[in-house]
Design a protein that fits this description.
Radius of gyration: 16 Å
Number of helices: 3
Largest sheet: 5 strands, mixed
CATH architecture of one domain: Alpha-Beta Complex
CATH topology of one domain: tt1808, chain A
Structural class: alpha+beta
Length: 154
Amino acid sequence: MSVPTLDGHAQAWTEEEFLALPETVWPRLELLDGALLVSPAPRKAHQRFSRALANAMDAVLPSGWEVLEGINVRLATGRILIPDLVVVRGISEGVVTDAADVALVAEIVSPSTGSQDRLLKPALYAAAGIPCYLRIDQRSPRSCPRFASPCGRP
């Protein structure tokens, strides 16, 4: 199979085609039912927060678990998302980690992915059987619209 490109790809993406894309095609590509979700690389503040959270989680995880940043998680065939942080059982190898090995996913809300992180991804992770979803919203409480629930809560 030749390596697919983003240009001229008219039909739905298969998992095989998605996984054959070179890592340098785009900062962050996810696969959802044949469609590619494209996100820009996270901002530096986002990355600093992610690393600090991963370090804090590493310090308290029991033996046999690890925290990984930005890995492919297969929720179902044709559904591969890239959470900001993932707590997985054992030492993960390979390109994709199955949802069955994931205890927690954490998403740090970014301006470009806010709707996905608040609405779409929690439902997808729950449907895949991932027991814990942690959403971190870095907005100040004053930036929340009056009609919304408090920041950081569903």
